[in-house]
Each structure stands twice: as structure tokens, then as C-alpha cells.
Write a structure and sequence with these properties.
Length: 110
Amino acid sequence: MICDPSDMASKFTAAPDKVSLLLFCALTALVTAVVPFLCYTLGLSTVEASRAGILATVEPMVATLVGILVFSEPLTLPSALGIALILAAVVMLNLKKSAGKQETGAPPET
């Protein structure tokens, strides 16, 4: 379990400035959930859904890199392996798609 709701409730009630805490929680939700969802949804109008789905798979990799670079988390072997596997998968999916279009005689994407 990530957090105990009763523990979080007791910490909230013990907070001296509840308005600032509520504002912080609202801004955190906005930055971590609402804005990314809106950007993804708006991006679908200019990028085909299959390509957007492939690009969305890099999200865990970016989260790991942000943790390492911004929050000084250690780069562990599983994290490095995960990053390498995600990059390899994205490259392979894009290469396979490009090669398939060239074989069928479809015009290259611009």
C-alpha cells in the first residue's frame, strides 16, 4: 500500500495552513493528471492514434529519468534495463512500420 488513508487524513487535519495544503494538492493533481491528459488528447488531432500509443509507452522511461536527474534517485540495474527495453521497443516498432510501407509501395510519410 502506498499510503494509509487514515494516516493521510490525520496529517491533513494536523496541518497548520489547510488552504495552502489544499492548493498544493489541487495544483499537483492539475500538473500530474489533467495537463498531461489534455496534451495527449489535443495531440491526437495532429498525430495518428497508433503513433501516439507508441510514443505514450515512453512515459515510464521519462518518469525514471526525471527521478534520476531531478530528485537524485540512483540508477538501478532494473531501471536501466527498463529504459533500454522501452527504447529498443519504440525503435523496433518504428523500423518495422517504415519497412512495411516501403515494401507495399506506399508513399513515404512526410
